[in-house]
Amino acid sequence: MTTTIRWEQDRTGVVTLVIDDPSQSANTMNQAFRDSLAQVTDRLEAEKDTIRGVIITSAKKTFFAGGDLRDLIRVTPETAQELLDGGMAIKRNLRRIETLGKPVVAALNGAALGGGYEIALACHHRVALDAPGSKIGCPEVTLGLLPGGGGVVRTVRLLGITDALLKVLLQGTQYNPQRALDNGLVDEVAATQEEMLAKARAFIEANPESLQPWDKPGYRIPGGTPANPKFAANLPAFPANLKKQTNGAPYPAPRNILAAAVEGAQVDFETAQIIEARYFVELAAGQTSKNMIQAFFFDLQAVNSGANRPKGIDPRQVRKVAVLGAGMMGAGIAYSCARAGIEVVLKDVSAEAAAQGKAYSEKLCEKAVARGRTTREKADALLARITPTADPQDVAGCDAVIEAVFENPELKHKVFQEIQHIVEPDALLCSNTSTLPITALAEGVDRQSDFIGLHFFSPVDKMPLVEIIRGERTGDEALARAFDLVRQIKKTPIVVNDSRGFFTSRVIGHFINEGVAMVGEGVEPASVEQAAAQAGYPAKVLSLMDELTLTLPRKIRNESKRAVEEAGGTWATHPAESVIDRMVDEFDRPGRSGGAGFYDYDDSGKRAGLWPGLREHFTRSDAEIPFKDMQERMLFSEALDTVRLLEEGVLTSVADANIGSIFGIGFPGWTGGVLQYINGYEGGLPGFVTRANELAEKYGDRFTPPALLVEKAEKGEPFKD
Ligand code: NAI
Questions:
Q1: Distance 466 CA to ligand 1 centre (A)
Q2: How high is the ipTM of this complex?
Q3: Which positions fall inside the 3-hydroxyacyl-CoA dehydrogenase NAD binding domain (predicted)?
């Protein structure tokens, strides 16, 4: 006998169903829950006459976590029927509770996401406790799924098709209780547990014979359905919005959600449930949801929980940090640290430059206050934590340093030397260099074991990733402290070993090079941009190149080339190089900051279309590259070099590679990350190897699969930690 749902009945006949899975810290829709739900449903029906009403709540910190992702990621087309049956059983039982003829109230004591919110939707009334961090909504779309427990059917009937799609289903927005109330997802918010339960009881008292709106005679879906000509006139706008959301990239969930909502709105409730279930199972059995669950749930959890942090070192918090350089990156780093409660000394060459760096935080705070995301008091407190200065003595007492001055090794040495004996004697020493090897930079300080790379991404306040780079002499203690610092500022840390370009800068270079090379081969430049967008990259490749400037990769390339040749190796010339050289030397188009690049720019610096000269100077009559090849050249070049980075020992974890690629350099999320892309490729690893060889045959040796990949393909072993 399972005890996932506890039955508590008081003298007035109110039954409280307390969901409390004894086997785990959060409630999920596992087998035990399904069995338990069936039992309590039977009992509710059997004892109906003695029951006045029902409250559903939970004994966990959260109300209910949703589907069991461990089960879901294992579903195959063969086991899909089982999933369909299990899902239908839950739906049937929720429906039986909903139509019991007694008032049923969801008392959401904590987060109710996905399956949790679907249980709440099957209740006649929803009261949410305004608990800190509590979230409500249907985030399934962000894992490549749809709410298959009646979530599509009921949100459409509760809010109308348009609001259900835009506010709940297509974006997967997670609302705090107050915003959930404002958007109609819950009916009441309570400040305390007691108030929540009192409100639930009051509803039961006032509504002895509750019916869902959709079970009342004459009910119509709010806002109309496609059967209504006025509504039908708007219908074509939905697929267009969808295209805007996915950019044409292969995300099947939004499409299935739209279909389930629109088709389900035109039929009765029961048929709509079946339609929803079919679309759900199609997603769950497909590859994309597995990729997304792997990355956004399992890998992210592994990375953030410190799978790659040295063991046995006590966690430490930074109290006061010195940020050296108040430019674009330094200003953003200062803001992120101050937001997390850390005192910040923001140092630049002059008091004005430092103050300008702080002004960036002032601007962000103003915006946050104006949008109601923070209070004036909190914003003022954040700003009070940032002390701008030009005086090196002000870094006294800092237990960590993050350097973000110009990308110049001599200058970086100089600024560390200036402050290394003023900060705390064991202060953690971090450099935000984007390209310089950490081991060599460390030679500029006395305590090399405390020196480490902390590579932030721009814009720092928005980008969730930080790449931690361990130099040859970096100690375990410094690595653990750097990891803790990144978590303290609520970002996601991946850990790599030192190498030119580390992981992220090196791999994104391949994406850009492929795009540029195709222009050189005479591919229509607009098609190159389109190929990147439809592959799911957030930034178009040529526009990204312009942002970075064409001269920067050229400088990095020349340095790398010199290093390779000095080590006695041969530099493998990439076809992109000659295109970049011509763009800079022959056409004087160094990128956006220079006023001209692959794109033209107007006087205000806005993109004004692709440069027509590209077609003139690079077009060749025989350039016929299939669209699929264009996309896969970008995706494969990044994936193959990631495998080489594993071979070289720069990367040591699959989860870090997957998360770093999506969160740091925009590798498409539907793939589950750069190594999961290989795992999930059609035909698995052997399929990927075959295709890489094909690309190598057609486009060059850089697509030849590395030995590690071939070996894993032969053994049938996917990339896994
Ligand atoms: P930036 O040019 O905006 O800022 C550099 C700042 O350092 C300037 O405010 C300058 O006055 C200051 N500075 C120069 N000498 C100094 C000294 N002796 N003491 C104190 N401050 C001094 O540069 P940005 O873009 O912020 O880059 C800084 C570092 O971050 C570079 O190493 C860069 O490679 C790296 N980085 C840049 C990224 C980007 O997207 N821009 C991304 C990741 C890393």
A1: 16
A2: 0.97
A3: 320-498
